[in-house]
Amino acid sequence: MSRVASDQDVDIDLGQLVRAVWARRLRILTITALGAAVAFAGAKMVSPQYRSETRVLIEPRAPAFANTQTSDANAGPLLDELNIASQVQLLQSADLIKQVINNLKLYNLPEFDAAANGSALTDILVALHLKKNPLENPPEERVIDAFTQRLQVYQVPGSRVIGITFTSKDPKLAASIPNAMAQVYLAIQSGAKLASNSEATRWLEPEIDSLRQKVSEAEKKVADYRTTHGLLQTNGTTTFTAQQLNDISVELTRVRTDKANAEARAQAVRNALSSGEASDTLGDIMSSQSIQRLKATESGLQSQISDLQTSLLNNHPRLKSLRAQLADIRTQIRQETQKILASIENETKVADLRAKELEQQSDRLQANSARAGEDAVGLNALEREANAQRQLLETYLVRYREAASRADRNSSPADARIVSKAIEQVDPYFPKVVPIVIVAAVATLIMSAIVIMLSELFSGRALRPVEPLDVESRTIEDSVEDEEQGGAAPLAAGTAPVSAARLAKPSMLTAAVDDEEPQAEPVEEAPADENEFSVSSVASYLADCRAPLAVSISPTGDNGSAATVALARLLADDGRRVILIDMTGSGYPTEFMAENPEAPGVTDLLCGEAAFGETIHGDRFSDAHLIPQGVSDVRRAMRGADRLSLLLDALSSAYDIVIVECGAADVAGVSRLTRSKEIEIILSLPEIEEAAFVGLMQDFQGAGYERVVLMSGGEEAAMRSPARHAA
Questions:
Q1: Distance CA 508, CA 531 (A)
Q2: The pLDDT of residue 131
Q3: Whose CB has fewer CB within 10 Å in the chain, the N or C terminal residue?
């Protein structure tokens, strides 16, 4: 770097790099054309490779006569991803590859046994023991290795399709091998199903013979048990004893019904006889033919008597004779009624005797049925055993018939089919001349430009020195003189504040900006109510608007910085996570808050002499945090002031509010902190001076900072903050 001093900071001149590349454009284009030509020649010298693909769909397949339920049951595992992956491995198995090699006689092709011919490079590598001699492997293994290197089997994503791809110098061979592999695979799958059916048939035959004998023995035991214990069945499900008991119960119910009916009929006849009422309404009496004849005769006599009474006297012999006949007829009717009553009573007695006999028979059959129930327990056990053996035999017979029906090759198709056969390709898969030439040309162009840029950087021609920023001309002697004119002496660390206002020292930000002040348009005057500008009012405003970043400017010096300290403490006491960054020239916030004024701070962080976590400290009198001024050189630290925006962004994500105390800074200095204009600007003026405040408002609003807040207060406000951590 001949053009840059060794102790001076430098930067990369991008314009010089571009100019250097442009000046050598003819050389770069020549090298690019040469690289493209070499790539074209190399692509033409390489033997073309052709690639073809066959696709196989894995799906359940069965002949038309197959059982639908069985096919659905077998279709489940085929939909599993693991099953598809297993089929991919099966297509790459050594047995399948060997069968394809033997079917197509690939071992006779030099392409699959290139090691047999050998080459000079291979012989040299083998002689130097850098490569194993391929001839040490058996010929079959060499052919399989060459075949596997050109083969690719994969599952098409999101489907049950398997792709079989093969690459070869011969386009016909590249198409025939995937098709042959698919055919062999289908034959293997079909053969596996045939073998499974044959094994099932061989196993089921002796099992069926054994089950037939067991079923016959079980049914014979059931029949013998029924005969021995008298558990004969009448209609296939009911025993003889149970059937008898059922019949007797039905007959007993009928006899009891007949008895009750006869008793009711007899009682009705008795009531008619005892009361002398007409018995014409009783069914048993009216159904008697004798009664009907007597009733007819009675009706005729009654009619004659009525006719003669109109012409004869009551004592006439004719009337007496008819009345005597009528009385005799009525006597006969009553006698016939008595006979009917006796007949009904006889029916009642017979029904009662029949009911008693049936009850005795029922009692005997119930006792026999109880014994039959105990015997039926053993019979049920024998029947269950016989039914189980019979059902198992029927299941085996069904499976045997299904397996026997699929013994033919055409009845057991493979659970896969070819959906796309490989065809002979016209265009080679590799090399692609045009893409190779384009990629080689672009790579050569980029590498040539990079080499030229690196040469410019190492020669120093693309480096330019970084000019130091103008420093504010105010000296320490001027500051001391201003302090003497102000009539106040600076406070030592830890001493009590005095009532006199401390004068401003240069801010850290003024070490990195020009003295040129931005012009601003006039704005309206600020309000004069001091209560609205107190430290507590500003704290409430910041808490309500949830401002992430606030920059405090203290034109009068440390009195304003003390108010900023009080603001941070009030926010911390209100439960806010707040941190204050000391960017003043005097370091007064550090002196006021830190336990150790010499603790590492922002200048050490910007100079790279302290880690980020080492610069954050706690306040002595509150829960607020502090990043002190630090002990490193301010001017050297402010060369990296552009990194302050990154620091503020990181702190804003960790704290509710970040307060930057800049001391007596100006607009240009504040603008280096962050590019955003949407931040809170706090003008910390212990005593409100209208002219000073309006001037500062005009400066900041003219630079685009619209959110400017006035805060009055000083060291007294800071000391009034609760000292919660004090002993």
A1: 31
A2: 61
A3: C
Cα distance between residue 697 and residue 681, in whole Å: 10
- The whole-angstrom separation of Cα 613 and Cα 600 is 10
Q: What is the pLDDT of residue 135?
A: 55
- Angle at CA 244, nearest 5°, toward 240 and 245? 120
From the list 248, 250, 242, 81, the residue with the least C-alpha distance to 161 is 81
Closest CA to 581 of 557, 560, 564, 563: 564
Cα(539)–Cα(647) distance, rounded to whole angstroms? 23
Residue 234 tokens, joined: 């009448």
Two structure tokens written together for 633: 């050189």
Q: Give SS3 for 727.
A: coil
Q: Evaluate the CA torsion angle 697, 700, 706, 707 in order and state its sign.
A: negative
- Cα–Cα distance between 654 and 188 in angstroms, integer? 66
Angle at 580 between CA 574 and CA 583, to 5 degrees: 155
Q: Which of 161-175, 238-252, 398-412, 420-434 has the largest mean confidence?
A: 161-175
Are 279 and 285 spatial neighbours (Cβ–Cβ below 8 Å)? yes
Q: What is the largest CA-CA distance in the chain?
A: 186
**Cα–Cα distance for residue pair 232/309, rounded to 1 Å:** 80
Structural tokens at position 104 = 């197509």
pLDDT in tens, 158-190: 899 999 999 998 999 999 999 999 999 998 888
Nearest to 265 by CA among 141, 348, 147, 154: 348
> Burial, 198: exposed, middle or buried (Cβ in 10 Å; 0-12, 13-18, 19+)?
middle
Question: How far is CA 154 from each of CA 77, 85, 167, 296, rounded to the nearest angstrom?
Answer: 19, 9, 14, 114
How crowded is residue 521: how many other Cβ atoms within 10 Å of its Cβ? 7
DSSP string, 667-708: HHHHHTT-S-S-SEEEEE-SS--HHHHHHHHHHHHHTT---E
Q: For residues 78 and 656, what is the distance between their CA atoms, to the nearest angstrom?
A: 59
Amino acid identity of residue 87, one-letter, is Q
Q: How far is CA 285 from CA 263, 264, 277, 338, 339, in A?
A: 15, 14, 13, 10, 10
Q: Which are the contacts of 414, defined by CB distance < 8 A and separation ≥ 6?
A: 61, 185, 186, 187, 188, 189, 190, 193
Contacts of 237 (CB under 8 A, 6+ apart): none
Confidence (pLDDT) at 237: 59
**Paired residues of 53 in beta bridges:** 165
Residue carrying structure tokens 């931005």 = 518
How far, in Å, CA of 179 to CA of 56, rounded? 10
Helix axes 317-405, 240-275, angle to 10 degrees: 160
If we measure between CA atoms, which residue out of 199, 585, 258, 256 comes closest to residue 403?
Answer: 199
The pLDDT tens digits of the residues spanning 614-652 come to: 889 989 888 899 999 888 888 888 877 777 888 888 888
Most confident of the ranges 129-133, 199-203, 253-257, 265-269: 253-257
**H or E element, residue 163:** strand 161-168
Residues 309, 314, 316, 317, CA torsion sign: positive
Tell me the C-alpha distance between 373 and 643, whole Å: 101
Tallying the residues shown for the chain, one arrives at 727
* Tokens encoding 595: 């336990």
- List Cβ<8 Å contacts ≥24 apart for 400-406: 400/200, 400/201, 400/204, 400/205, 400/208, 402/67, 402/70, 403/197, 403/198, 403/200, 403/201, 403/204, 404/201, 405/65, 406/63, 406/66, 406/193, 406/194, 406/197
Tell the residue number behind the tokens 């880690």, with chain if given: 611
Q: Is 661 helix (H, G, I), strand (E, B) or coil?
A: strand
pTM given for the model = 0.41
